[in-house]
Amino acid sequence: MLEETSGSSASRLTAEKLLETPKLSVDRLPVLPLIFERFGTACTEGLRELCSEPTTLFINQIESSNSWDVLESYEDSAASIFYSPEWDCRILIGLDRRCIFSLMEAMYGGDGKEMPYEGERPFSTLETRVARTTAEIAARALQNAFLPGIGTTFVFERVETRIDFSLLGQRNIPVMVGQILFQVLDQGGRIYILIPQSALHPLREKLTREQPPEAQVKDTRWVQGIQNGIAKSEVKIQAVLEGRDATLQELTQLKVGQVFALNSTTRSLISLECEDQRVFWCKLGQANGSLSLVVEEPIDEKDEFMGDILAGAGEAHS
Fold first, then answer.
1. Number of neighbours of residue 206 by Cβ within 10 angstroms
2. What are phi and psi of 253, to 5 degrees?
3. How far is the first Cα of the chain from the last one, in angstroms, to the nearest whole number?
4. Beta-carbon neighbour count of residue 93 at 10 Å?
5. Is 150 found in the same domain as 283?
6. Residue 127 Cα distances to 90, 99, 174, 282, angstroms
7. The domain that contains 154 carries what CATH number?
8. Residues 302, 190 within the same domain
């Protein structure tokens, strides 16, 4: 009877192992490190909201692990929990004590010469608020780092200053862990991100393919403002007819009503200039009883320059 019980237990364990979702490997997800690199850049920009001192984020490692093991190694930290509606799971973004204290030093005018306080005491209300704000900035950066095809949103739920193994649930679950080294004023600490592997399993195919480089993200309001400003800018233009050479004596002898003949005719091309820059070749026309210009073609200064050189060489040769 005992042998039958032990045999059934072994069979059940074997069946559970077979049905267990295989763990993901970072080596087989080449897009994931790229996402974390983008996260680091975006988070650095976002942290300017908190302090004017320059900050540095370095992606130290990304690895596959279990939630209980990771949380045990970050007991002295403050962790914010976010819910992803698209993935239907929770992720965790935490800051260790040294990271929080370094941020506080930079935010409130410290010079970084004194070492951060390392005594064991609970986080104050202000320190907890700073940890939460930093985690929210990091969550937005991570959300923007994911490509459109695998994007998600992260909704803040709560911040925990007492870290235990059950933060992501009572079960020990496989997770992807990103450890980021943070530095400001020659001090720093660690930021860590836990993403359940169950959220990434449906995205395996997209995370294994290299994505084409994204076009540079533009501020649409800034672009629209520039376009509107350029479109509404006023410029002065003038039409220039080909003239003729005259001596100073000829000019002084001109009288009122006298006709001064030019080299141009009604069929000659007229250059349209703006700020002493020739822009278009035009022809003289008439509209509603007034003289007008008909644009023929744009002026290519390079072609004009080469034409003048060739014309000069021909005259010298003749």
1. 15
2. -90, 0
3. 121
4. 29
5. no
6. 23, 11, 30, 70
7. 3.40.1550.10
8. no
| Helix (H) or strand (E) segment spanning residue 299 | none
3-state secondary structure 179-238: EEEEEECCEEEEEEEEEEHHHHHHHHHHHHCCCCCCCCCCCHHHHHHHHHHHHCCCCCEE
Is 123 in contact with 162 (CB distance < 8 Å)? Answer: no
Number of folded domains in the chain?
A: 2
Expressed as residue numbers, the domain containing 172 is 21-210
Nearest residue to 262 (alpha-carbon basis) of 289, 244, 280: 244
Residue-level pLDDT, tens digit, the chain, 318 residues: 545 555 555 555 554 454 455 677 787 888 888 889 999 989 998 888 888 888 889 898 898 888 888 888 888 889 999 999 988 889 999 999 989 988 888 888 877 777 666 667 888 999 999 999 999 999 999 998 887 677 788 999 999 988 887 788 778 888 899 999 998 888 888 999 999 988 888 888 888 865 545 555 566 667 677 766 666 677 788 888 777 777 888 878 888 878 777 777 767 788 888 877 888 888 877 777 677 788 888 887 666 555 555 555 555 555
Evaluate whether residue 9 is within a structural domain.
no
Nearest Cα residue to 181 out of 36, 304, 293: 36
Q: Is residue 228 part of a domain?
A: no
Q: Tell me, yes or no, whether 61 lies in a domain.
A: yes
Query: Is pTM, for the whole model, over 0.90?
Result: no
294 close to 280: Cβ distance less than 8 angstroms: no
Q: Tell which residue, 101, 294, 287, has the closest CA to residue 187.
A: 101
**For residue 263, what are its two tokens?**
């080299």
Helix (H) or strand (E) holding 5: helix 2-19
